[in-house]
Structure formats: structure tokens, C-alpha cells
Specification:
alpha+beta, Dihydrodipicolinate Reductase, domain 2, 9-stranded mixed beta sheet, 3-stranded parallel beta sheet, 10 helices, about 20% strand, globular, binds nicotinamide-adenine-dinucleotide
């Protein structure tokens, strides 16, 4: 497909490609597409290791070509609102974050039955250096980084395997120091029976706390001292209500496409990421693309950061949870 694209007339060429294969089949098609000047929207985790991630970052930067990483949950409007609330200081300084993703579908040895999704996710050659951490811990990390704008600078990791004979972790608990001096837990599990896709985040600041769960993605809760809890619903947020400032950006308020009470969910989050990516691809075709700052969807540097995080967790876990510094930037 990539080779054939080169010989097509301009108006028939691919706009961009999606890479939705298992993790070990991300790097090669991504690199081929970028080298053929085709923008890429790639599933997470970006690839298998930081060697591959660095090569992708270099190629994307050299060509200044649109590249997105499919951290779906950033596309919920409530994630956009959370980011605005935290990064405009409405909760004060961030002291503590609990970012988690809890599932139960790998509580038994599903891979022994040949089930496709379980088989590659528990195979280090196909999944990478971490099972649970790479698969869903990277979503918890990205949610923390996107909403708070903070990075993990040092971490202590416990990567555990509850299901006997499984070569990768199915339970992942990371205690982290954040770039502002705050602390965080980034945690994930695939062995909590009954849990489905319980990704959520709690952010405790010096003035208040924010609570959000993707299984109820239309609402977020703000907890303030000596006040009743406030629940904000997508599409029903008013500027100047005593917490949300008058100058909240109009384009943020206007972003939801369907009125409040008609629920948006997982597919809408994906659609929002794709709308933003498509806008960048159009700019790029028009010669007006200046780069992706990560405010609308995860960029190539975010992809690299996810892989660097996993490698740092593996190092720490091998040292029985000893503190290990994260690489600062690429
Ligand atoms: N962003 C999200 O919310 C989200 C959700 C689920 C999965 N994912 C990611 O999406 C990717 C795929 O996961 P999945 O659960 O859909 O996997 P899956 O096993 O359901 O599907 C993978 C597909 O890739 C195909 N495939 C496998 N090897 C191939 C190869 N060498 N060449 C071409 N096709 C090949 C398989 O036939 C299958 O159709 C993974 O990287 C995963 O981490 C992301």
C-alpha cells in the first residue's frame, strides 16, 4: 500500500495511515510510511523499545510530518476540561496524583486458550518489556501528563505477575516523583476480576481535588474545602460560575458536538483525536503545519516518553523497586 501510494496522482494519495496492529508491528510500517511522506496515527505503546522510539522521533522531526499516538482518553472533552482546570491553577499546586487503569480480563491464563489479544499481549517479543504496564499503564501515564502538564522524573516500580507461567507483568504499581516536586501513583492491573476499563485520575492540589473516570466520561467532579462537591457535565459548563473563570476559552466550551445528556463515549473520544489530526494533515498539505504541541492528541515525543517510562520501570523493578531517574527529554 505504501509503495503503491508513490505512483498515485496527488488527489488519490493516502491522507494518512492508521497502525492498529500488535506492538511489534508498529515500528516498521510507521518508519516506512514516514519515509514515504505519509502522516501516521499509530496505536500505543509507540513501539517495543527506546532504540525504535528514538529513530521514529528523529525521522518525524526531520520531516516535520504529522504523527499522532492513539492515547484515546485524551479525546474525551472532560479530559480537555480537566487539563484546563489543572493547568490554569484552579486546584492550586499539584501535590498528589493517582492515575490508574484497572482491568480483570487477564485474571486467568487466557493466552493458553489461544485467544488472540491475550496471546500477543503476554509475549515479550510482541508486547515489549512490560505486559500490563505497556498495554494500559502507558495510558495512565499519558492521562497524568496530559492533564497536569507534569512529568515523572524518578520512579520506584513493582511489576508483578499473578498468573503463573506468564512471562510479563499483569500487575503494575509505580510510585513517582513529579517535575513540580509532587508525588504520584501510576498503577495498572489486569487481574482484578470484574473490572473492565476502569481508567481514572485523582488530582489533589493545594486548593482542591479533581476526580474523573473514563467509564463515566461525561462528568468530572471538583472537591473544594467546605463546599458541596461540584459535578461538571460535558456540554453544560458555564463561564463565571464561581469556580470556572469568566475567561475560559470559548473554543474549549464550543468543542462538544452533541448537546449535554446525549452521551459521548469511547468512539467520540477517538473521533475528536482524529478530527484534530485531520486538521493538522490538511495544514501540512497546504504547507502551513508548524508541529504538534500535544495539546490535542499525543505526539511522537509522548510516544517516546511512554516507552522510556516502561524501560525505567523495568530497571527499577529489577532492583526490587529501587529509585531510578527517568530520561528528561529527547
Ligand atoms: N488506544 C486504545 O484505546 C487501544 C485499545 C485497544 C488496543 N490498542 C492497541 O492497538 C493495537 C492492536 O491491539 P488489538 O487489541 O486491536 O489487537 P488484535 O489482536 O485485536 O488485532 C490486531 C490485528 O493486527 C493483525 N496483525 C497481526 N500481525 C500482523 C502483521 N504482521 N501484519 C498485518 N496485520 C497483523 C491481526 O490479524 C489483527 O487483525 C495494540 O498496539 C494495542 O496496544 C489501543
Amino acid at each position: 500500500m505504501i509503495n503503491a501510494n508513490a505512483t498515485l496522482p496527488e488527489d488519490k494519495k493516502l491522507d494518512y495511515i492508521l497502525i492498529v496492529t500488535p506492538n511489534h508491528v508498529h515500528f516498521d510500517p510507521a518508519m516506512k510510511a514516514i519515509k514515504a511522506n505519509i502522516p501516521v496515527f499509530c496505536e500505543k505503546p509507540l513501539c517495543l523499545n527506546t532504540k525504535e522510539a528514538r529513530a521514529l522521533v528523529k525521522e518525524v522531526r526531520d520531516r516535520n510530518i504529522p504523527f499522532g499516538v492513539a492515547h484515546t482518553y485524551l479525546g474525551h472533552w472532560t479530559s480537555r476540561l480537566s487539563r484546563y482546570i489543572v493547568q490554569s491553577g484552579l486546584l492550586g499546586e499539584v501535590r498528589w496524583v493517582d492515575s490508574y487503569y484497572i482491568q480483570g480480563w487477564l485474571a486467568t491464563k487466557l493466552e493458553a486458550t489461544g485467544q488472540m489479544q491475550a496471546t500477543w499481549r503476554t509475549n515479550p517479543q510482541m508486547a515489549g518489556g512490560s505486559g500490563c504496564g505497556g498495554d494500559i499503564g502507558t495510558h495512565a501515564l499519558m492521562q497524568l501528563r496530559y492533564v497536569t502538564g507534569l512529568n515523572v522524573v524518578e520512579l520506584s516500580a513493582q511489576m508483578e505477575t499473578f498468573v503463573e507461567g506468564r512471562p510479563l507483568d499483569d500487575h503494575f504499581t509505580i510510585y513517582a516523583k513529579l517535575s513540580n516536586g509532587g508525588k504520584a501513583l501510576v498503577r495498572a492491573s489486569q487481574v482484578c476480576i470484574g473490572y473492565k476499563n476502569d481508567l481514572g485520575i485523582v488530582i489533589a492540589g493545594t486548593k482542591g481535588t479533581l476526580r474523573w473516570r473514563q467509564e463515566e466520561p461525561e462528568q468530572l467532579t471538583i472537591l473544594l474545602p467546605n463546599q458541596p462537591d461540584r459535578t461538571y457535565w460535558r456540554g453544560d459548563v458555564k463561564a463565571g460560575d464561581g469556580f470556572i473563570p469568566k475567561d475560559i476559552p470559548a473554543d474549549l466550551l464550543a468543542e462538544p458536538t452533541i448537546p449535554a445528556g446525549h452521551p459521548e463515549a469511547f468512539h467520540d473520544a477517538f473521533a475528536r483525536l482524529h478530527r484534530c489530526f485531520e486538521a493538522d494533515v490538511r495544514k501540512w498539505h497546504a504547507g502551513e503545519y508548524t508541529g504538534n504541541d500535544g495539546s490535542k492528541y499525543a505526539n511522537i515525543e509522548d510516544g517516546w516518553m511512554g516507552i522510556a517510562f516502561i524501560e525505567t520501570c523495568v530497571k527499577s523493578s529489577n532492583k526490587k523497586g529501587g529509585w531510578v531517574k527517568m530520561p528528561e527529554k529527547i
